[in-house]
Amino acid sequence: MPEAQDHGTRRSMRIGLIGAGAVAPFHVRAASVLAGAELAAVCDIDESAARRAAHLAPGARVFTDHRRMLEDDAVDAVIVNTPHALHLPIAIEAAEAGKHVLVEKPMATSVEDCDRIAAACASAGVALTVGHIQHFLPDKTAAHALIASGELGAVQLVRDNRSTDYRPGTRSPWFFSREVAGGGALFNIGAHCLDRSLWFGGARASEISASVANRFGSPVETDGVLRLRLENGVGIAIAVVSDPPTRSDSLTVVCEQGVVEADPRAGTTVRIDGRTRVLHAPTEHDIQTGFTAQLADFLQVIDGGTPAVPLEHARHVVELILASYRSAETGTTSILGRVPA
Q1: What is the DSSP code (8-state) at residue 3?
Q2: What pLDDT is recorded for position 4?
Q3: CATH 3.30.360.10: does it fit domain 154-255+317-335?
Q4: Helices 24-33 and 47-54: crossing angle, nearest 10°?
Q5: Phi/psi-derived region of residue 249, left when phi > 0, alpha when psi is between -120 and 50, beta in every other case
Q6: C-alpha 85: how far from chain center
């Protein structure tokens, strides 16, 4: 586990986790190892789920209504880990209550809602970060550090292959509600792929085209293929496939002088002129390391620092998902900046 980190003379930041879903334990454990932070409360409409998460943080209070948690002044900051459409109202209510906000990805289900969250936090004078965990996972940070060093020259192409499982019944029902989730596999899993591909590509997208499939009788897309052209000329290809014979989570970055592959299961390797070397060997703690680093980033933003994931980047991810839906519906390429977001 990562060592506790110090955040100066600031008193311990009392953190409230709103939403006790699958990644809740990672958020709770992150708070437990960071000096200057404590997981003070867990809120979920399912009290049993809230209690399971709170059990990992002795002394944490349990709520079933986030408004009650905010009114009781039980926390100084919140992590919004709820279904996507709830990010907007909960983040705004937290900001209006004077609480700092870390909202899980995707930031919101529309570009307008992203802007409303950012405006509410700015107006209230509270910190805001978006939980794009890919920026903190060890296999990705090792790859990004090598590319940033300049050893491989400029990035030319990015290929991102990701498997998932969007068969109805394999995940909570809200994932299959376009109103609540914003969409299907692309809004959920595709957001991770777009986030990290843009990060490695080094620029915003100028155009995107997409094809999607709705299988298993699902009301939302279960699979999707995206092709992007970035403003710096880098090309990106992303595939999200549901329930394939083999699982995949592979990011390949083609540079002038070599190729980097990052995979949380296999680690990170680079191949240069016929020779391969390992940049990061995976460990059982890698996911937790990422969540701990993400929370540490949130704490330093509260202290006045700059977020590792710019808000404009998080907003752009949402913009691109929506543009991909337009492309899939019309069979045309979406040109960014020419179509209302």
Answers
A1: P
A2: 43
A3: yes
A4: 30
A5: beta
A6: 15
| Cα 262 from Cα 199, distance rounded (Å) | 13
| Phi, psi for 180 (deg, rounded to 5) | -90, -40
Q: Per-residue pLDDT tens for 89-107?
A: 999 999 999 999 999 999 9
Quick: pLDDT tens for 39-61.
999 999 999 999 999 999 999 99
DSSP for 50-80, written as a single string: HHHHHTTSTT-EEES-HHHHHHTT--SEEEE
The CATH class, in words, for 13-133+291-309 is alpha beta
Q: How many Å apart are CA 209 and CA 126, to the nearest integer?
A: 37
Burial of 219 (0-12, 13-18, 19+ CB in 10 A): exposed
| Strand 100-104 relative to strand 77-80, pairing | parallel
Q: For the segment 122-159, what is each residue's pLDDT rounded down to a tens digit? A: 999 999 999 999 999 999 999 999 999 999 999 999 99
Q: What is the pLDDT of residue 84?
A: 98
Please, what is the angle between helix 286-302 and helix 24-33, to 10°? 60
Please give the Cα distance from 78 to 28 (Å, whole number).
Answer: 12
Q: Parse the chain into domains and list their residue ranges.
A: 13-133+291-309, 154-255+317-335
Evaluate whether 164 touches 213 at the Cβ level (below 8 Å): no
